[in-house]
């Protein structure tokens, strides 16, 4: 299956070439396909904050390349370049709070740098580390897609009806996608009759990005309001809700795009299986449970305005952009290290001791 998946890799959102970082501007998709060029860590921090690049793994990869850009600038400026780069890393770490992949990638870059003694090798070593973070995410996507497909195949009655939330595809990762990677692979295996994509208010990752990615590949997708999901589960024969994650804690609780928690509650009520697909770089074993995850709140204008035009009354808006799904509502967490069914602390611990499968 791996070769078929590789052949199906068409869209990408992150490109490292000519010693610069190019990001596909996700704020203007699906109408404009605009690539923006970055040559400073500060610029990339801004791109993450303003969501030019988004999705937990993609944010981590972009931040890793940003460290290379920062190192080049700081080395050229001379002086205490390591201290100046540490300030760049602090700036990158402040760009978004919830997706742990950002901090995971920055830590990897920081630790790699600490092991380089001489300055002459530093840039090449950092670049190799960033490329390796990118490549291993791509590989992880392929492994997770195959593991997720096997879970879908085991359920009775193929082809099946799937529901997904937010965007977890090529745009959100270094490769094929996490949850959307499983859905794309399942389609290639003839297991998918229909995909329902939640529009994902307020930023519309579902209607602008997921629907675009699936339609580009001819996968039968229909868009629905987030509030239609329970009705769809009851009336349309949904067998799986499949989502990604921004941070998974040591007990298996999952932070993901706002609206994921209510999907899990509804899935349990309707006997629909609930699958979370995320690389191990999304797992934060330093946090005991989901209550400890910082939840990003974004500007109220994302709710009160549509395409820059005010549509809401003159009130304040509360706009948390992630929520936490408790582990006991989750049927399976799929990672590149393997699958954890009915997650709990002991099973998460065992998973993290394993090596990658491929
Ligand atoms: O605010 P976003 O668009 O960065 O949120 C993205 C999500 O919540 C995704 O589901 C998650 O990052 C997984 S992406 C593979």
From TrEMBL:
Substrate binds at residues 54-56, 96, 205, 256-257. Keywords: Amino-acid biosynthesis, Isomerase, Methionine biosynthesis. Pathway: Amino-acid biosynthesis; L-methionine biosynthesis via salvage pathway; L-methionine from S-methyl-5-thio-alpha-D-ribose 1-phosphate: step 1/6. InterPro entries: IF-2B-related (IPR000649), IF-M1Pi (IPR005251), IF_2B-like_C (IPR042529), Initiation_fac_2B_a/b/d (IPR011559), M1Pi_N (IPR027363), NagB/RpiA_transferase-like (IPR037171). It is an enzyme of class 5 (isomerase). The active site is at 246 (proton donor). Its EC number is 5.3.1.23. The record marks 166 as: Transition state stabilizer. It catalyses: 5-(methylsulfanyl)-alpha-D-ribose 1-phosphate = 5-(methylsulfanyl)-D-ribulose 1-phosphate. GO terms for molecular function: S-methyl-5-thioribose-1-phosphate isomerase activity. The keyword Amino-acid biosynthesis applies. The keyword Chloroplast does not apply. Catalyzes the interconversion of methylthioribose-1-phosphate (MTR-1-P) into methylthioribulose-1-phosphate (MTRu-1-P). Belongs to the EIF-2B alpha/beta/delta subunits family. MtnA subfamily. This is Methylthioribose-1-phosphate isomerase. It comes from Pseudomonas typographi. The gene is mtnA.
